[in-house]
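Homework help board

Subject: predicted structure for assignment chain

Our instructor gave us this sequence and asked us to write out the predicted structure in token form, then describe one feature. I got the tokens but I'm not sure how to describe them. Can anyone check?
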Amino acid sequence: MFLDTTYSNKKNQELINDLVGKPYSFLKSIKMKGVGSKRMIIDDVSLNFKQHMNSISDPNYANIELRTGGILIYINKGLKNLTWAIPYYQLVIYKVNGASIHANGQFIHFKNNKTFRENKNFFRKMLDEKIKYDSQYDFQHLWI
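My token output:
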């Protein structure tokens, strides 16, 4: 789900909380050593997102927040803030010359530079959270 979150809106917050869960508490986020990534440069996006990116050569930036049931990708475009909410069951991550996050036929690719490499531990934490989420729904015993 892609939302314009420049201004706070109770309806948008409810949609986000229903889709990816509520934010972690302050104490939980400290125990996890942070739930947000540093700012990363967007290298490429799917066709659906092209209209939301800067049309001139200015770099586009985004950061990621972990939630209990998914992630939020915050994209900054000038003075506008856009949020892409992705539940863990739709999240697919590829590591190809940076990182590429896919969901519902759309993607965002982050440039492989210093800011991306600083987020290596964050991506590891994000994958661990996805694995924990997926392990709740272990259907392995149905196939035996």
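Reply (TA_rk): Your tokens look well-formed. For the description, you could write something like this. The chain has one domain: 2-135. That's the kind of observation they're looking for.
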